[in-house]
């Protein structure tokens, strides 16, 4: 036990030194903000791979946060904790339900200079994703979902693998969409009914990437949320809900625009 304790102390010391060094390097040599990417429901961080490749090529430091998908309050708290490990300005990006998470995680964080919603929810205070869906009907997502009972009345939801390509990523290469269907992470169903707090988009400049072929969140809902937030809007004709997967170049370009215009 003594040897283990000493070993842990040594590791902590090395990590602390590395963190301090990294923070110093970040503050002194990096001129570009860190881009933090938050995936949505029925996805994982690998959905950002094409975007990450382009951002890193252009010199942006990137963190893809593993959104827990357990509930809005706890998911936002996790992303907030991730943000607090980063020195310097941040561009915070959310896809789908991840938009709800960044709306809450960025609140009160002066380091977040821009919010980018990639086919993402941008709820107002007290609003839920399901309320937005009800207000702007037309989504076919509910028809493709299957429950995973967790006990005690709790239920996770996932998209049926055979429905995933057409529902989520109709304009992506079929093999990529099929792989994303297998890699998807379920979300606790209650998360869609958890009200948002005061939205960070009221005080942080926001950008919206709106795919007109989105079958999961209707384009009308996207347009409404973007207008309400007075956000900069880019529309992608014919793109699916998984626009980050099918159009990573356009997605990365909007993120970089947000970084440049808010630096």
Automatic annotation (TrEMBL):
Domain of life (superkingdom): Bacteria
Domain AB hydrolase-1: 35-253
Keywords: Hydrolase, Signal
Pfam families from the UniProt entry: Abhydrolase_6
First and last residue of the signal peptide: 1-23
A molecular function GO annotation: hydrolase activity
The name this protein goes by in its record: Alpha/beta hydrolase
Organism: Lentzea tibetensis
